[in-house]
Amino acid sequence: MTAATTIDPQEAAHFGKLARDWWDAKGSSAMLHKLNPPRLGYIRQQLDAHWGGDMASYTPLAGRKALDVGCGAGLLCEPLARLGAEVTGIDAAAENIGVARAHAVQSGLTIDYRTGSVELLGGERFDLVTSMEVIEHVTDPAAFVAGLAGALAERGMMILSTPNRTALSRLAMITVGEGSGMIPKGTHDWSKFLTPDELTALVEAAGLTVVDVRGLTFSPGKGFAVGDDTKLDYFLTAVRG
After folding, report:
1. Helix-helix angle 94-107:9-16, to 10 degrees
2. β 112-115/126-132 pair status
3. Is residue 52 exposed (0-12), middle (13-18) or buried (19+ Cβ within 10 Å)?
């Protein structure tokens, strides 16, 4: 880890404690498992729109390099690998990386997992950079976005997701989610949530062009869904060149 890291040690320790249960769909990461299908659907939609891919193809990322920053134990890295990408996953918690590596072996997948922060990549470039529900946990969002943008290749695409800073997100994620135990207590600091306008400004300041912002909603009956309502959580897609 370099001196110029955006990792918050307390946040890394919090998520490291959850590593053992990361792949348990009924454990402490249950909400992430419910979130993954609509998340992947959105990513696939953006991939096809940006690169003009064949929607019938099972491997739209074949021949491309993908980076997932704040990868946890690999819940997104593994599907990206199955979509054909050469995947690198980075996480601040060594415990998560250990679990991610073991699960990739069990799954028969080759994924380059590393412990650390985006600032450690140096000159490496990737066609796709993702970072899901991570920016609200770093020490310096602007520097973090700049690091993500710096890892993006020409004509590359970056996809982020994060909670919006609204009354609804406070109620749903902290009062209800953490209060009921559906989300591990202490996961969120509402004051660190970014609005779509704030995140857009950071992404544009890093030299990228925002091409899509979509909301993520949740209901007990239907689960997570992608739509126009950004009050709870949202995706942001940006491109270089």
Report:
1. 40
2. unpaired
3. exposed
Backbone angles phi, psi at 99, to 5 degrees: -65, -40
Dist CA 145 CA 233 (whole Å):
18
Question: Tokens at residue 135, please?
Answer: 């920016």
3-class secondary structure, 98? helix
β-strand pairing of 209-219 with 86-91: unpaired
C-alpha 161/C-alpha 155 separation (Å) is 20
Domains in the chain, please, with CATH?
9-161+196-216+233-239 (3.40.50.150)
Instruction: For 167-234, give the secondary structure using H, E and C.
Output: HHHHHHHHHHHHHHCCCCCCCCCHHHCCCHHHHHHHHHHCCCEEEEEEEEEEECCCEEEEECCCCCEE
| Chain segment 196-233, per-residue pLDDT in tens | 999 999 999 999 999 999 999 988 888 899 999 999 99
Q: What is the DSSP letter of 119?
A: G
Give the pLDDT confidence of 101-122 residue by residue, as tens digits.
999 999 999 999 999 999 888 8
